[in-house]
Design goal:
- The complex is a heterotrimer.
- By secondary structure, chain A is an alpha+beta fold.
- Chain A folds into two domains: about 100 residues; about 120 residues, Cupredoxins -  blue copper proteins (Immunoglobulin-like, Sandwich).
- Helix content of chain A is about 45%, strand content about 25%.
- In chain A, helix 1 packs antiparallel against helix 2 and helix 2 runs antiparallel to helix 3.
- Chain B is mainly α.
- Chain B has one domain: Four Helix Bundle (Hemerythrin (Met), subunit A).
- Chain B is elongated, with a radius of gyration of 20 Å.
- Chain C has two domains: about 90 residues, no CATH class; about 475 residues, Cytochrome c oxidase-like, subunit I domain (Cytochrome C Oxidase, Chain A).
- Chain C has 23 helices and one strand.
- The N terminus of chain C is likely disordered.
- The chains are: A alpha+beta, B mainly alpha, C mainly alpha.
- Chains in contact: A-C, B-C.
- Chains A and C meet through helix 1, helix 2, strand 1, helix 3 and strand 8 of A and helix 8, helix 15, helix 16, helix 17 and helix 18 of C.
Chain lengths: ~260, ~200, ~625
Amino acid sequence: MVDVMTPQTPQWWKKPDVKKTAILWVICTAVIGFVGVEFHVRSMVRPASETMSGVISLMRIFTWAAAPVAGLVGAMCITVLTSKRHYGDNPPAEADHEIRNSPRATALWVVVSGILCLFALVTGMIVLQQDNKAVLDTQAIQINVTGQQWVWNFDYANGARSQDLYLPVNKPVVFHITSKDVKHSFWIVQMGIKMDANPGYTTETAVTPDKIGVFDVRCAELCGLLHAYMQTKVHVVSQADYDAWLTAHAATEAGA
Amino acid sequence: MSVETHAHHEHPDVVGSRNRLGVILLLVADISFALSMVFVYFYLRGQNVNDMWLPAATADRPAILPISSSSAWIVTAVCAFGALTHIYGLRGARAHNQTQLKLGSLVALVASIIAIAIQVNTISSVPFTFNDGAYVSCLYMFAFLNFVHLALTIFISLGNWNRARLGLYTENFWHVDIVRIWWIWMTVSSLLGAFCLTYP
Amino acid sequence: MTTLTHKSVAAPGKSIIEKLNVFTALALGIITAVVVWRLSLAFLPQDADGATMFTREDKITLLSMCGWFVGFMTGIGALVGPFRWLMGKDLSHDENMFLAGQDMGPKRYLRYTTDHKVVGIQYLFITILIFFLGGGLAMLIRTNLGHATGGWIHPQAYNSIVGTHGILMIVGTIIMVTGPFGNFIMPIMIGARDMAFPRLNALSFWLIVAAAVPLMWGQFIGGISTGWSAYNPLASQAPLGMDGYIMYICIFAVSTMVAGANITTTVVKMRAKGMTWNRTPIFIYGTVASVALALPAFPVFFLSQVLSAFDRALGTTFYNTAGGGSGWLYENLFWIMGHPEVYVILIPAIAALMEMAPVFTRRPLFSFNVAIMGIAGISGLSALVWAHHMYMSGWAPLLNAPFMITTELISIPTGMLFLVLVGTLWRGRLWMTMPLMSIFALLWNFMIGGITGIYLSDVPADAFLHGSMYVTAHFHYTLMGAGLTGALASLVYWFPKMTGRMFDKTLSWVSFWLVQIGFNVAFVGMFAVGLAGQPRRVESYAPTFNTGNLITTIGAYTIMIGMLVLLYGVISSARNGVKAPKNPWQAKTLEWTVDYPIPLENFDVLPIVTADAYGYGKAKS
C-alpha cells in the first residue's frame, strides 16, 4: 500500500521513507488499537447483560479493524511531517516529482476499505439478528413501559405497577414501550438496550439481565423541562425475590 | 425571471440557457417539496394512527367522510388548459405571430385566475375543521400547496402577458419558454395532489 | 455615478433603488410586524372555551413574523426586480451597475448589492457573527455543565440554549465555506465576471439576515426548548419561541435553495473557456456538490416546519397522534434533510483543504478522479442513510439492516477523500503554514469522527450509544473538527484575496493550536462521559460524570480563547496586516491572477484555461 508514489521504481520498498512508514505503521496500529480499545472499554459501564457484553466486544473488534487504516494514515502523516519542512513567507521549491495518481494504490485502498466495510456489516448483522429474535420470545416476561413527562411507569403482567423497575436475573424480558405525551427514549444503561417511547405507538425491545444489582434507567431523548431528571433504577434480583416483590405489589394494587 | 448579469451584454441565448437551468434547479427544490407532501399523505394514510385518518363518529360530530376529489381534478384540468394555451402562445412567438402570443398569454392568465378561484371556493366550502383527523390535515396541505403555486402562477402569467402586450418578446422569447416549464410543473404538482386525494 | 444621476432624472423608478438599504429594510420590517401584530390582536377570534388546542397566540406570532419578513425583504429591495419584470421595465445596465455597487464605497455592504465579492464579505461577516453567538451559547452550556449539580441555568432556559446553539451552529457551518468563499472566490476561480444570477445571490444573503430576527425574537417569547431537531410532539407543546424557530428554518431553507440554484448554474454555465470538467478545481466540485445536495434536501426540512406551523397555529394533526398524526413522520422528514445536511457542511470544507494541499506541498493533487468519485459517492449515498438517526425510534425495525448497509457503505467514498489528502501530502515539500497544518488536523479529527461513526452506524452498538454524549462528541468531531478546521484554513488561505492583506502568521498559529488542542481535550472528555452513560441535552448529571465534564469544559474554554484570538487576528490583520502580493501562496488557480482590489467585473479580458491548477512538480517548472 505504501508504493503510492513510486510505481516505476522496481524496489520501492527499499526507499527510506517507505521503510520508515512501514515501521511507523506497525507502531501506530498497535498504539491506536490499544489506546482505542482501552479508552472505550474503560470508559464504558460494566455490563449487566449479554447484550451489553456484546456491544463491548463489538467496539473492541471494530477498533482493532479500524486501527490499521488509521495507523497507515498516521504513519504517513508522521513520515511526511518529520521530513524536511519549510518555514518562511515564500514557498519551497516544487516537489521533485509530478505524480498525479497511482491506480495500484487506489485499487488496493478501495478494496481494503470495501473488505473492512463488509466485515463491519456482517459482524453487525449477526448481532442484530439475535437482538431481533429476542423480541419475539413469547416465553419471556412481558413488561409494559410507559414514559410520561418526567417519570417511567412499569406495568407487570399481574397488574403490579411501579416506578422502579424490578427484574429477575437470567430471565429474558420483553419491554413494550409507549409514551403518554412526547417522545422519550427508554435506556437501561448497563444492559445496552434502548428504545424510543413514542406517543400513539408501542415499540419493543428485549434483554436478559445476567447480574444481580441496581442499574440505571435514563431518558435518552430530550423530552422537555426535566429531561435530565427522568431517571430511575432497575433492581435485578433473584427469581425468589422477584416473585415475592411481584406478589406483594400485585396485592397492593388490587387492594387500592 | 429575468435576471441578467450586470455587465457586458451577452448573447440572449446564453442568458436564456443560463436562466433556464437556474429555473429548472429551483424546480428541483419545489419538486422535492411536493413529493415530500405525497410522502406525508401516504405515510399518514398507511399508519392510520389511532384510527384517526378518517375518524369515526363521536358524540360531538359525525364520522369524517372524504370529499370527492373531483374539484382537485378540475383545478388540474384548468391548469392543463392554461399550460396548453401558454404553449399555444409560445408557438405564436416562435412563428413571429405576436397576436397569437398575446392571446395565448392572456388566456393562460385567465386560466390561472379561474383555477385559484375554484381552489379557494373548494377549500372554503369543505365541511371540516382543521383538527378532524389526518386526512383532513392532508387535504388542507394540498390546498395550501396549490394555492401558493397558483398565486405564483398568476404573478408569472400576468407578467408574461404584460410583457407580451408591451412587445418585449419580438426578438427573444426565452422568458416565455421558461414560463412554459413553470406551467407544466404547475399542472403536474396539481395533478399530484389530485392523485393523492383520489385515494383517501 | 455621474451617468446614474443623469439618468435618474429620466427614469423615476431608479430613485427607489437608490433609497433602499438595510435601514429602510429594518424600519419597514419592524413597522409591518407591529402593524400585523396589532391587527391580528384586534381581529383574530378568541380560542373557543375547551378547545383541544390553543392556537390564537401562535397565529399572532407567526403572522407578525411573516409581516417582519415581508416588510424587511420589501425594504431591502428584493421585490424590485420581480415587479420591474412584471411591469415589463427590466433593470437597465446603469441600474444593474448601481445594484452591483459600482463606485459606492463601504455603503454597498449595507445594501441589496449584487456583486459576488460584496455578498461574500457579507456572508463572512454573518458567519463570524453566528459563530460568535453560537459559541457564546456553547460556553454557557459548558459552564453550566462544569460541575455536577451546580446547574445555575433554569432547565427551560438551558434547553433553549442547547437548541439555539444547535441551530445557529448548523446554519453557521452550512454557510461557512459556500457562503464567504463560495461567493467571493468561486466565480473568480472559474473565471467568471459574476454569479449567474447576481440578484438571487443578494437575495440568498439577505434572507439569512431576515431569518435571524425571528430566531432572536423567539428567545424572548419562550425560547426553543426542544433542541435543534425540534422533534414533534415536543415542539407542538413548546412555547411561542418555537414559532421563531419555524420561521427561521423556512426562510433559511429558501435562502439555501436560491443559493444552490445560483451556484450550480454559475459553475455549469459560466466556467472560463478551456476550463473543462477535468480542469475545474476540486474546490468547485466540493461547493457544487454541497449546494446541489442541499437543493432537494432543504425543501423537505421546509415542509416539516410548515406542517409544524400548521399544527401549532391551525390545530391540524400531522404530528399529533391523538388526531391521526405521527411523530415518526416528523423524524423522517427531518432526517431526510438532516443527513445530507451534514455532508452539505463537510464536503466543501474538505474540498477546500484539497485545494490547498497541492499549494502547500508543491506537488500535484493526488488522484483528482478519486476525489471526484469520493465527493460524488458521498453525495449520492447521503440521500439514502437518513434512518440511521432513527434506529432506536422503532419506526421500522426491519429497515434497520438496509440503512446500516447504506450507512457503512459511505465509509468507502469517505476513505477515498482520505486517500487523496494523504496521497497529496506524501513526498510533498511541506510549507509549514496554518492551512497546511489544518490538513493534518482534519485527518486526525475526521479519522476519529469517522471511526466513531462506524460504531454508531452499527445497530447493536447504537442501541447503547444513541442519544448519549458519545453522539454529540462524534458529530462535533466531524462538523467542527473536520468542517470548521477546513473553514478556518480557508479563511487564512483566501484572506489576502478578500482583504488585500496577509493574515497575521503568529496569530493564526496560536489560534490553530489553541482551537485544536482545546477541541480534542473537550470532545475526548465528552466521548468518555457518553460511554459511561450520560445522555445528551441534560442540564445536570450523576456525579460519576464529573471528571469527564470538567475536562470538556476546560477544553471548551481553550477553544473559546483560540477563537477569540482568531477573531482578533481577522480584525487586526484586515486593518493593519502586511499588504499581500497578488499571489502570496504561488498558487495556480485563477483567483490569484487578479489584483487587489479586484475590479467590479473581476477580469478585463476573460481568461482562457489551458491546464488544470495542479501542475506543480519538477517537470513543470
